[in-house]
Every structure is written in C-alpha cells, then in structure tokens.
C-alpha cells in the first residue's frame, strides 16, 4: 500500500559518508516536520518533497557548543545573539548554550534569565539554551534558576575578569555543590587555583603563560573532585588547557566521582611556541600551552578522559585586544571555526569524523541534557550538516559572521568546509528560526 501524503518526508538527504551512531557509511536520512523519521539505505526508493544528494560530502549531526559567551544584553557590541548564531550556523553548530557572564545582568537569578531570554527571542539562527551562574550569595537562587530551565550552573574559583561575576571561595563552592546536588543539577567550573596565579611580569606571551601555570589547573581540579565526591554533585571541568589535569580527572572517574571535563579547539590546534609577539588574539584563560602539552590533551581525548570539545567563544571589541598580554582581554573568537580547526588536526592524527562528532555533538548534548540533539537517529531533531571534509580553505577574518574581526585563526589554512547547515530540516543561518530551549 502506498504511503499517504501526510507520511511523505519533507526532505531526504543522501550521502555516501553519513556519520551515524553506529559508524560512518552511505545512508539516506528522511525528515518530516523537523524531525528525522528514518535512516535508510543509500539507494532506498523514497518519495519526498525535496531530495538533496551530497555525493561524497559528509553528513554530520549538527554540532552542540555548550560554551559560548554571547554577551547580550549589556555587552552586545562584543557579541550578540544575531551575530553569534549566524556564525554558529555557518560553522555547522545548530545548538549553543550561552554562558551566564559578560552580559548585564549576569544570569544569576530567574529574573535575569528572563531578561536574557527576552534579549534572545526572535534573533537566533540556531537553537539556544542557557547556563545559570553560581556566585557568592546566590545559593537561594539556584533552585529557581533550575526550575526556570537553565542547563546547569557556572562558577569560577579564580577572578572571572568581570566584577559582577565574582568567584566562589571554599565555603561558597561547598554550599553551591550541596544545593545543586539536592535537585541533581550540574555545576560547571572554571578551575584555576587563585593562590597559584600571578600578575605577568612583562607584556609578552612567555610572561603571561608563566603567570597561569598548569599546576593551578591541576590543584583546582583536585579540589573540585574531592568536594564532588563528598557532596555527590554532578560536576564538569571547563576548558582544560593543561595535561596535568588528566591524571586527577582519571582518578576521580575510577573512584566513582561524577566528574567530566572538556577542552577547546584552540588548546588542540594552537601552541605557545607559535604565538607571535603582541598577538593578543591568542590570549585566553587558561592559556594555550606547549606543543607537547597539546599532544597529551589529544591523548586525553582518545582515552575518554576529556569528553567534549567546545569553543569557549569569548569575543571582545578589537580595542580590548591591546598588544600587551598582561593588559589585553582574554578570550578566543572561534565559534564559526571550531569544526574545521578540530577536523584539520584530528585527521592529521588519524582520528575520524565519528570521533569529532562524538566530541563536538554527542557528548556536549548529553552534558547539557539536550534530548534529540547531537546524533543522526530516528526521532531526533533534523539538525544536520553537509561537511566537505576534503576541501581546504584559508581563514579570512573579514568573512566571518562574528561581530568583531578578531581571531587567532586568521590566515590559517584549514581542512573541511561546511556547505549547508539544516536546523530541524530547514536551511539555517538566513533567518532567525532558532528556538530557546
């Protein structure tokens, strides 16, 4: 019996390199009403309103970037929802989770979350979810934020760089963990021990790097692991830059502590030895470290100690990137470039597209509890990416959708080009079709 008109897919996308949960291979993905309604053999005979045949261009699930500083409202001239989500769509990212700081007000109360949602409404080219913040004095706001829909709570153990989002001391960290554990929420932590940080002794990158040693990260990770073990909270370490963190992270896992961790494209693709003098577009906290350290981070990914690769897109206006590493704003702009940057290095090291999808789509979706995201599977949202994995391009910062033309990737030759991004079965990036999750 033939299918009724209501059963005909809106769209079928066929690719010889579809990256599915079971592996990479030929497939035809059928979409109806924004969801994947079937994953079929490549040569399946299907009726559809629209067909797209990608040939050898890979079909990936839309990436999920759980570490994006949008900065709107309050610092929208740094980055806003319209520009950030267009950049995300151009880079194959179909869902972002917005960080609670750098906007004014920061997302540390349910009322502030409502302000953030109103600012984002109607502007977003991709789906957007939100983190809340844990700061001194707002323990009573954590449960209301959770009930209002934040995906978890970010805290700092060292100064954040903005005065309206101060760090937690030892008592404050424990109190936040106890409260968040009471409703099985998630605490995500910028983990650097402030006792081991110092002001740089000069304007250059070596002095800046020395001022934020890897030992500061390791010690903070050990502290979070110990408290997470005592309180039973789910905790996640943000933007691991130092390989010294791998051993305490692995030990915590062996001991049954509910602790996960991420790293970022810049720690996997850039290295301290190649940072040019005065090139503060490379400045971030924690810092980009040595090539040997970079190799160890890749080992941590391969071993599963690090589960996610997310951008930590933290932009600013060009005037804040003064050519002095001690004084410049710390943050990397890379939301549009994460997939191609990571794929360039991953392929060189023998990893496949399935690995990249696991690190940049599947695991981040799991971390943030985003059901229906991060995989090409029946019933999932039809968030899909046509990725030409063999194409080569040179980054031109003026062609990016980021609000400000600042990125350390300018002039770098990368492998892989995003040809098309679909959000729930419709081409993303041109119109504000994203949902607030």
TrEMBL record:
It is an enzyme of class 3 (hydrolase). The keyword Zinc applies. Signal peptide: none annotated. Its cofactor is Zn(2+). It comes from the Bacteria. It holds the Pfam family Amidohydro_1. Keywords: Hydrolase, Metal-binding, Zinc. Its EC number is 3.5.2.5. SUPFAM superfamilies: Composite domain of metallo-dependent hydrolases, Metallo-dependent hydrolases. Pathway: Nitrogen metabolism; (S)-allantoin degradation; allantoate from (S)-allantoin: step 1/1. The keyword Oxidoreductase does not apply. Residues 59-427 form the Amidohydrolase-related domain. Homotetramer. Belongs to the metallo-dependent hydrolases superfamily. Allantoinase family. This is allantoinase. The lineage of its organism: Bacteria, Bacillati, Actinomycetota, Actinomycetes, Streptosporangiales.
């Amino acid at each position: 019996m033939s299918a009724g008109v209501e059963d005909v897919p809106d769209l079928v996308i066929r690719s010889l390199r579809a990256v599915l949960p079971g592996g990479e291979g030929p497939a035809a993905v059928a979409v109806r009403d924004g969801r994947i309604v079937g994953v079929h053999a490549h040569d399946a005979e299907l009726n559809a309103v629209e067909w797209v045949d990608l040939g050898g261009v890979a079909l990936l699930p839309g990436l999920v970037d759980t570490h994006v500083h949008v900065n709107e409202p309050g610092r929208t001239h740094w980055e806003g929802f319209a520009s950030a989500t267009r950049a995300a769509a151009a880079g194959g990212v179909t869902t972002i989770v917005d960080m609670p700081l750098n906007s004014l007000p920061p997302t540390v109360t349910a009322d502030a979350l409502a302000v953030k949602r109103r600012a984002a409404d109607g502007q977003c080219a991709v789906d957007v979810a939100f983190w809340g913040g844990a700061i001194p004095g707002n323990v009573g706001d954590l449960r209301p934020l959770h009930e209002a829909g934040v995906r978890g709570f970010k805290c700092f153990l060292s100064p954040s760089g903005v005065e309206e989002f101060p760090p937690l001391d030892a008592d404050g960290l424990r109190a936040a963990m106890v409260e968040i554990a009471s409703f099985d929420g998630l605490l995500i932590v910028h983990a650097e021990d402030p006792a081991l940080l110092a002001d740089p002794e000069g304007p250059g990158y070596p002095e800046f790097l020395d001022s934020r040693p890897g030992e500061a990260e390791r010690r903070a990770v050990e502290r979070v692991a110990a408290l997470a073990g005592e309180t039973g909270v789910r905790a996640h370490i943000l933007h691991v830059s130092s390989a010294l963190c791998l051993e305490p992270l692995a030990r915590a896992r062996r001991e049954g502590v509910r602790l996960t961790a991420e790293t970022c494209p810049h720690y996997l693709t850039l290295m301290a030895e190649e940072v040019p003098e005065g090139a503060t577009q490379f400045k971030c906290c924690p810092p980009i470290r040595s090539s040997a350290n970079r190799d160890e981070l890749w080992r941590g990914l391969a071993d599963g100690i690090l589960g996610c690769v997310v951008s930590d897109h933290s932009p600013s206006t060009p005037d804040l990137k003064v050519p002095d590493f001690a004084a410049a704003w710390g943050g990397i702009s890379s939301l549009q470039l994460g997939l191609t940057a990571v794929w360039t290095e991953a392929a060189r090291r023998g990893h496949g597209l399935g690995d990249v999808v696991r690190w940049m789509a599947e695991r981040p979706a799991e971390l943030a509890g985003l059901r229906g995201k991060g995989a090409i599977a029946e019933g999932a949202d039809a968030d899909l990416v046509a990725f030409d994995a063999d194409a080569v391009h040179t980054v031109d910062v003026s062609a990016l959708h980021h609000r400000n033309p600042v990125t350390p990737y300018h002039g770098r030759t990368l492998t892989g080009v995003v040809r098309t991004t679909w959000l729930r079965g419709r081409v993303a990036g041109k119109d504000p079709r994203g949902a607030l999750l």
